[in-house]
Amino acid sequence: MLQVQEIQCQYQSDIVVDKVSFHVNDGDICSLLGPSGCGKTTILRAIAGFQPLTHGKVILRDHCLSQPGKLVGPEQRNIGMVFQDYALFPHLSVKDNIRFGLRKQNEREQNSAVKRLLELVRLEGIAHRYPHELSGGQQQRVALARALAPSPDLLLLDEPFSNLDTELRKRLSLEVRDILKELRISAILVTHDQQEAFAFSDQIGLLHGGKLQQWDIPFNLYHEPSNRTVADFIGEGCFLPGVIGSEANTVTTEFGTLMGNRAYHWPPGTPVEILLRPDDIVLSDFGGITATVVEKVFSGSATLYTLSLPTGSRVEALLPSHRNYAINETVQINTEADHLIAFSREELLQGSA
Ligand SMILES: Nc1ncnc2c1ncn2[C@@H]1O[C@H](COP(=O)(O)OP(=O)(O)OP(=O)(O)O)[C@@H](O)[C@H]1O
């Protein structure tokens, strides 16, 4: 439905989006995720038609909307936008803000669409209120209804939940996802919050320094990061040194020889580092190694421990919080990692350069 082909965007001579490609299918909900300044909003603006391209193309339903020298105007794209600051008209009621998105239809059509949209975003009871009489969550629902009113092909959401408190943010993002799925409207969300991206999206694009590092389903981004940058940005975890074992799917580490679910392409003896997520470390009654608690962060049902191994390497472990280990206490641990991701030391050095 949407094809973003090798797009490049520049501010003066600075390339801030560098040959980024991805596509969005009908009904897919996607996120662009990455640290501040990595180019997320610029990509969204390029898709919306506010940002010209210096290379590549944006194609929506087989129509080229942008390429160098060509920029179809934002109002001609049938793409909706929802912003962080809601951008509601303060002098218009909820009903009239939504009606604004329908101004090309006759009055009868407008009335029935407004009624349907008010029901959809659950604001029927407060249709006559003005934006200053609404909570942040309600204002964002009005903004969503207004953007959905003209039945866009695609909805772009630029950090729409970031002004809301954590609980409301979680709830509203799931509500919005349900609404989009019900209407089968494709959407792209820009966020720097990975939990939000995980919960909201079918596909996520991770950006860093203007380059797309990986476009994938949330599970793969976490368990199968394609490079060190992705592994560092997504989730928690530590890198543990090891060497490729005599079998191509094994890595020998301080925990002994671990078996991965793939054959590694390096020869036996190659020094590598493996990514261990906190949920890859488990308590062990028999075997395993003795580790010392050096840090702990309580988060309710679980506690994230930083543990020091006998060689001085560190791993993180997410353990149920009913067992409360003290700093300097020792615990017996082992690994249970199905997705054993290894990076060669060379890749690691490149990633940290
Ligand atoms: N109008 C502008 N003129 C010059 N540089 C800009 C302009 N807008 C953005 N930039 C730069 O382009 C880069 C990408 O910005 P962009 O807003 O796309 O990042 P982002 O990933 O959305 O960041 P954030 O999460 O902080 O909003 C940044 O280095 C930013 O400073």
From TrEMBL:
CDD domains reported in the protein's UniProt record: ABC_Carb_Solutes_like
A Pfam family the protein falls into: TOBE_2
Domain spans labelled ABC transporter: 2-234
InterPro entries per UniProt: AAA+_ATPase, ABC_SmlMolc_Importer, ABC_transporter-like_ATP-bd, ABC_transporter-like_CS, ABC_transpr_FbpC, Mo/tungstate-bd_C_term_dom, P-loop_NTPase, Transp-assoc_OB_typ2
This protein's record includes keyword Zinc-finger: no
Organism annotation: Zhongshania arctica
Tree of life domain: Bacteria
Entries under SUPFAM superfamilies matching the protein: MOP-like, P-loop containing nucleoside triphosphate hydrolases
Keywords: ATP-binding, Cell membrane, Ion transport, Iron, Iron transport, Membrane, Nucleotide-binding, Transport
UniProt-recorded name of the protein: ABC transporter ATP-binding protein
Gene Ontology MF, one: ATP binding
Regions that span the bilayer: none
